[in-house]
């Protein structure tokens, strides 16, 4: 009688991380600073201090990255911000870029 042996193969599956996207706010001469702070606190979940700092970066630098998210979340936040800005009569521009 012969001994039986079996071989077990292990397969490694590499899970690729999804791409990340930067949400960028752009300065304009019409959108109020208060509105930008409101958006940062209510859509981007920043505290008052973070929101104020980011708003000043947008204001002084012309634009600023306000968050990095998966595509769906970045797009959703961009669309919510743009819709709210239009509702309030502001031409506020928000874009997304791959990291």
Automatic annotation (TrEMBL):
The keyword Protease applies. GO terms for biological process: protein catabolic process; proteolysis. Keywords: Hydrolase, Protease. GO terms for molecular function: peptidase activity. The keyword Cell cycle does not apply. Pfam families: ClpS (PF02617). Involved in the modulation of the specificity of the ClpAP-mediated ATP-dependent protein degradation. PANTHER family: ATP-DEPENDENT CLP PROTEASE ADAPTER PROTEIN CLPS, ATP-DEPENDENT CLP PROTEASE ADAPTER PROTEIN CLPS1, CHLOROPLASTIC. This is ATP-dependent Clp protease adapter protein ClpS. It comes from Clostridium paraputrificum.
């Amino acid at each position: 009688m012969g001994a039986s042996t079996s071989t077990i193969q292990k397969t490694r599956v590499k899970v690729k991380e999804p791409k990340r996207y930067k949400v960028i706010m752009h300065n304009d001469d019409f959108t109020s600073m208060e509105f930008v702070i409101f958006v940062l606190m209510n859509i981007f979940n920043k505290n008052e201090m973070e929101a104020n700092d980011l708003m000043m970066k947008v204001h002084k630098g012309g634009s600023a990255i306000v968050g990095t998210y998966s595509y769906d979340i970045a797009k959703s936040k961009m669309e919510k911000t743009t819709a709210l800005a239009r509702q309030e009569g502001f031409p506020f521009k928000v874009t997304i870029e791959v990291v």
